[in-house]
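hey so u asked for the seq, here:
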Amino acid sequence: MSEAKQNKKIENNAAVIIGVGDYVDKSKENGLNLQNLLAEACSSAIQDSGVKNLNSHIDYIGVVRFSIDFLTATNQSSFQYSNFPRTLGNKLGISAKEEVYAPMGGNSPQVLLDDALSKISAKEIDCALLSGGEALQTMIARLKSGLPLDWLDEPGGSPEMIGNNAIGFSDHEKLHGMDLPTNVYPLFANALRKEENKSAKTHLKECSDLFSEFSKIAADNPLSWFPTYRSSEEISEVTPDNRMIGFPYTKYLNSIIRVNMSSAFILVSQKKADELNIPNSKRIYVHGCSILDDIWNVTERPNFHSSPAIKKCVTQTLDEAEISLSDIKYFDLYSCFPSAVQIAKKELGIPREKKDLTVTGGLPYFGGPGNSYTMFSTTEMVRRLRNDPKSFGLLTANSWFITKHAAVIMSSKPSKPYEKIKNSAEQKKINQKAITNFTENPEGKGKIETYTVINGRKGLEFALIIGTLENGSRFIANSEKDNSLLEKMMKDEMLEARVSVSKKEGKNIFNLI
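ran it, structure tokens below
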């Protein structure tokens, strides 16, 4: 059957991406503000569609939440856009009936995508413009230099707020340092190597080998923030330029958020694509999208080396696409830290030797623009799929601490109309696995389940452990600032090490026995 005949069989409200655009601004104090930065990517996406008057057809503008626009953000007062989708629309000369603002988190682009897909499927909209990005390099540079940050606009109205915008940690977790990704993902790292019975040295080499391959792809990507190949040895070796952050992760194993990057894509109904005479070579269809959370608080999860949510997300999208994992040619696994990739690989059953796991170069090398990274993996995936007709691409997303997840499958192969995956029952099943023996007030002896040592710019700061008391209860605790102890914890094996724990000045403090 010819592609033209096959397209005729598709219902008119199937969804297709017809235009993509990205923009990178490496300026510092004089960089673009947020509306101008996103407008550049949107203009590129509109131009990429090949439709001269596309602005008049766009009836939905969706924007990924900016990282500064959240309760936990430093300098949140610097963000003064009351309705950014309308601000963006005004900048582009677009008047959209739907103005949508997505939640905090790395899966925010998929929350936005799911909303637009559902509304296209229901024939509520025909043409959606989705965009996201960050201008943190310029924002921070201006604030540090004492320059004004007149990034504000009051265009009127209020956007529709969608998705789960909850804080990703408990007060007790925050008290002990489990509110920062740089502190939490290393806990997953040591839990993984414990599960795999590997030494810290072996595990670090595997992490460095993995991300060296990512850097190789970033080096060939003209949009990368750091288009530099780094060898495994360079990534693992602690140097002044590559200091230890949270043991066992060096700086080159950490996502980079301080960037000026924006991305956008245009999503339309099949009917609208036909009306606009979009050639088949431009069309990339969304074959499935799933969104799920793991147990919300890290301390309540049965273990720290698995993710039932990402496994289910991918299984569901494969089912929607009516393909198997072996049919996927292009992957982009969310790569804020090695443990995120390693856990996803394990859950999906991707062979250990599989190397091509990113199309961009990953968050530490391509760049990690806040909640918007998967906007870029989407646009790059579209380009790959256009150049390789009928192949399939899978991208995943991850937010907070392997907490909020999403998966998307795309192809130039036409799809059926989008059907929203209703995951309330699956979410309930996952949540029911939460442990019930976590204590905020541990006292006595126990052992270390997983751990990390936090290294600041000025030196060692503290150790963070998750442990198990002799009665089976789980707890979290910090060390005191004792350089000899912290150096020992980075040198010697601490998994299963015996500790005593008690309360001191409101915090749980442990000591090695």
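The two ends are 72 Å apart (CA to CA). Residues 444-512 form a domain with the OB fold (Dihydrolipoamide Acetyltransferase, E2P) fold (CATH 2.40.50.840).
lmk if thats what u needed
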